[in-house]
């Protein structure tokens, strides 16, 4: 019996629309499986909330969220609210306070998706992006402002423990999932302090690991080319914050785009709730039209269920998504069809009921 509390933050734009479909699937799973006991609480924290209250979420939001086992997040973003507000007042505090130092993204080719880059190849790998330190730091600044010698310094901060944790998480995943190789993204030939440090500690963790995992370190410039030329060769890719960010978007483009790409911000120790969200944003250009693809959000729910110990349901959902895409009857506009968000959600839901 799994009794779990999940916080739901639909957010803005298509976030709200695709979240409805994920909840439809969660409810259906619960109806058909009495061992799945999930209590959901919906929080309306969004740009609308900001416009009413002057903040993206209440002061005690993190205390509230801490009591949950996981967070399912939609998307935020609204032309009336500056981008840095939505990111720094909602997403970042959650990621940082809950020590979600792993950003996990599966990159998997799907049937029936005409992606020129996937080109019919069987692509199935995951990216572990360091999510808490590295190149994305506020350390640095500008000097000699408005003078000819004006300059800026942007510091990268990497800690031994930070590298250890992300690499270990990648190794643990590899071990649990029968993978044999870890690919590390580096650039130690040019970024000689931080990236050499990254390489050294990555090598050390792999050497200490009780399982025999092959480690390949590849310069980021070569690695992006290999992602395109031979994406089928990767199993588990581990990368710093910046390199992981870039590789993740490329990975998602290879297999068919934003509407299909889920992600997880993980605190592997489970000391704090992890957060699951589609890679896409609020997509203001199509919001309100009911045509967004809900697959990325539904797959994010699948990752959440896997995280709380129900890998069987994760597999079930992914299988249902694959079956619907393989049949190719119900497709949203982004993947070449005309189905609505709700029709896509219904089709996946029906498939789950059939398989259950
Ligand atoms: P935000 O500022 O919230 O990130 P954005 O303008 O960057 O919003 P994204 O959500 O990142 O928009 O989307 C980029 C493009 O991909 C848009 O043209 C959008 O319509 C499309 N897109 C994103 N998600 C989906 C989806 N689930 N289904 C269909 N199209 C999508
Ligand atoms: Mg965006």
Task: Produce the secondary structure layout.
Blueprint: E1 2-11, H1 14-32, E2 36-42, H2 47-53, H3 61-66, E3 70-75, H4 83-97, E4 102-108, E5 124-130, E6 140-143, E7 151-154, H5 160-176, E8 181-186, H6 194-208, E9 214-219, H7 220-229, E10 236-239, H8 241-254, E11 262-266, E12 274-278, H9 295-307, H10 311-327, H11 341-355
Parallel strand pairs: 1-2, 1-3, 3-12, 5-10, 8-9, 8-10
Antiparallel strand pairs: 4-5, 4-11, 6-7, 11-12
The structure holds adenosine-5'-triphosphate (ATP) and magnesium ion.
The site of adenosine-5'-triphosphate has 17 residues, from helix 1.
Structure ligands:
adenosine-5'-triphosphate, magnesium ion
List the secondary-structure elements in sequence, H or E: EHEHHEHEEEEHEHEHEHEEHHH
Question: Roughly how many Å is the radius of gyration?
Answer: 21 Å
| Contiguous helical run count | 11
The proportion of residues forming helix, as a percent range, comes to: 40-55%
Q: State the shape.
A: globular
Please state the structural category: alpha/beta
Question: Widest sheet: strand order?
Answer: 2-1-3-12-11-4-5-10-8-9
| C-alpha termini separation | 17 Å
Task: Tell me about the largest β-sheet.
Answer: 10 strands, mixed
Q: Stretches where pLDDT falls below 50 for ≥5 residues?
A: none
């Amino acid at each position: 019996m799994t009794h779990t509390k999940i916080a739901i933050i639909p957010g803005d734009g298509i976030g709200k629309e695709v979240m409805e479909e994920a909840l439809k699937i969660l409810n259906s799973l619960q109806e058909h499986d009495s061992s799945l006991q999930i209590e959901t609480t919906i929080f309306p924290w969004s740009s609308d909330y900001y416009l009413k209250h002057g903040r993206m979420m209440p002061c005690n939001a993190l205390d509230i969220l801490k009591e949950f086992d996981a967070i399912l997040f939609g998307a935020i973003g609204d032309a009336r609210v500056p981008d840095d507000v939505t990111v720094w007042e909602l997403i970042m505090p959650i990621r940082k306070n809950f020590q979600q130092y792993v950003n996990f993204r599966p990159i998997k080719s799907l049937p029936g998706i005409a992606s020129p880059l996937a080109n019919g190849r069987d692509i199935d790998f995951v990216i572990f992006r360091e999510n808490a330190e590295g190149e994305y730091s506020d350390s640095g600044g500008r000097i000699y402002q408005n003078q000819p010698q004006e300059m800026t310094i942007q510091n990268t901060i990497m800690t031994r423990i930070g590298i250890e944790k992300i690499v270990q998480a990648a190794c643990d995943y590899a071990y649990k999932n029968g993978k044999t190789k870890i690919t590390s993204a580096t650039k130690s030939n040019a970024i000689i302090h931080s990236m050499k440090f990254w390489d050294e500690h990555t090598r050390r963790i792999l050497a200490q690991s009780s399982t025999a995992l092959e480690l390949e370190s590849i310069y980021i410039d070569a690695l992006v080319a290999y992602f395109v030329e031979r994406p089928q060769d990767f199993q588990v890719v581990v990368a710093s914050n910046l390199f992981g960010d870039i590789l993740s978007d490329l990975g998602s483009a290879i297999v068919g785009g934003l509407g299909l790409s889920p992600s997880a911000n993980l605190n592997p120790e489970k000391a704090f709730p992890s957060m699951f969200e589609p890679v896409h944003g609020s997509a203001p250009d199509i919001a309100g039209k009911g045509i967004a693809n809900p697959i990325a959000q539904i797959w994010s729910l699948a990752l959440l269920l896997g995280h709380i110990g129900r890998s069987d349901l994760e597999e079930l959902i992914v299988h249902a998504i694959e079956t619907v895409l393989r049949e190719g009857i119900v497709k949203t506009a982004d993947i070449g069809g005309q189905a609505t968000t709700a029709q896509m959600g219904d089709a996946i839901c029906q498939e789950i009921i059939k398989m259950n």
